[in-house]
Amino acid sequence: MQTAWKEYQDQNEKRFLDEMLELLRIPSVSAKSEHKDDMRRCADLVRQRLLDSGCDKAEVMETAGHPVVFGEKIIDPAKPTVLVYGHYDVQPAEPLELWHSGPFEPVIKDGKVFARGSADDKGQFYMHVKALETMVRTNSLETNIKFLIEGEEEVGSPNLGSFVGAHKDLLKADVILISDSSMLSMENPSLDVGVRGLSYIEIEVTGPNRDLHSGTYGGGVGNPITILCKMIASLHDENNHITIPGFYSDVVEATPEERALMGRAPYDETEYKSELGVKELWGEKGYTTNERTGIRPTIEVNGIWGGYTGEGAKTVLPSKATAKISARLVPNQSSHTITEMLLSHLRSIAPASVTVNAFEHHGGEPYMTPIDSKGYQAASKAVQTTFGKVPIPVRGGGSIPICSILERELGTKIIFMGFGLDNDNLHSPNEKYNIENYYKGIETIPYFHRFFAQQ
Ligand SMILES: [Zn+2]
To answer: How far is the CA of 346 from the centre of ligand 1 (A)?
Structure first.
């Protein structure tokens, strides 16, 4: 049977790739209203491809925001059901000038597809669509499959919770499978056993009621940019430990065993630094880089602006300064609690010379999958079958806010089976997905279904 899968995939690999490229050509940027029609066009194409690939039924379903695509192939209600979650929306492509080629004109170079959404998440969820096709066309599907492909992941899935809540029967499954993350490398495959949560806020600091002449007023009136920078700088101490009182209270420390297991993941600091173009790494004292990006919570400034940013010089003391700030959270931190903590802390440390307007953007809870669950075991065996190595369980640094919502609403465990790489430039210019990884994912996924069905 394995030979049949591989044979089918080899015969169709060109089309499998072309279909992914077709999806990548649609600029489905959920954050921008000008792409509303592209979002719809993309959802329609996903629906059509689900039908072409073997789903009995597929529809574009409305939400209060961008639509959700649902599809299913039910072979026998008595058999286990796998719900595949993914998203067809992408991050904005800006800054465009840093792209080597158009973000929505996919280019293949050195075995990689360069385009926004190639790894996050069109190329990855589409592996499941082609895996379905493989199993259907070779008469070897052993599970029921449902697809939930949403269009608002990159803006925090504001409408998915209510959608899932309203369609619990439709989405009922025995396990949820997600490919929206990365693995360590092709030589050292890994499976994420958790993702970090997120709190995201914006803060606007206002000083004088208008932009002032920096010669006439400078020195006598607080500069909102300087003040905001000081406030932000104070969020970390000299050990890069976060200074907000209570921030770490709910953090469950990883056990020494877990840290040892994580420590087995290969890591070359010199290569890591040179790949990023930095001379020195940065982070919380007492933790390795893998730990800092996996088991520890963080605070990052995502954007900051104010004053004059045009060409040439303009001597101005600005009225306002603004920053977008996010925190990555680990079990058992609560997104709501940390958001409130962040907002009230920033308000409390602002000097009286400015006023602060701070508010929440979106958040998500951290999530963990037990490695002794049936789903994890099936995924581990599947990866072992096609990569020839038992995958290393790792905690992913990113966030998939929908995880805790899906588990809460559907009562089902989530398995992360990401085939991307950390250097795929997710959310950055020149996002790419290696074609080898795409094909390897399509090859591996059918084994997950088989092993899951056999348990
Ligand atoms: Zn994603």
So the answer is: 29
Q: 171 burial class (0-12, 13-18, 19+ CB within 10 angstroms)?
A: buried
Half-sphere exposure of 402 (CA within 13 A, CB side): 31
Which residue numbers are catalytic? 89, 153
For residue 224, the CA-to-ligand 1 centroid distance in Å is 35
Q: What is the pLDDT of residues 149-199, one digit of tens each?
A: 999 999 989 999 999 999 999 999 999 999 998 998 999 999 998 889 999
Comparing CA positions, the residue from 191, 361, 355, 337 lying closest to residue 250 is: 337
Tens-place pLDDT, residues 337-379: 999 999 999 999 999 999 999 999 988 889 988 888 999 999 9
Contacts of 334 (CB under 8 A, 6+ apart): 197, 250, 365
pTM: 0.78
Interval between CA 427 and ligand 1 midpoint (Å): 9
Domains along the chain with CATH numbers: 2-195+366-454 (3.40.630.10), 197-251+297-364 (3.30.70.360)
Spacing, Cα 211 to ligand 1 middle (Å): 39
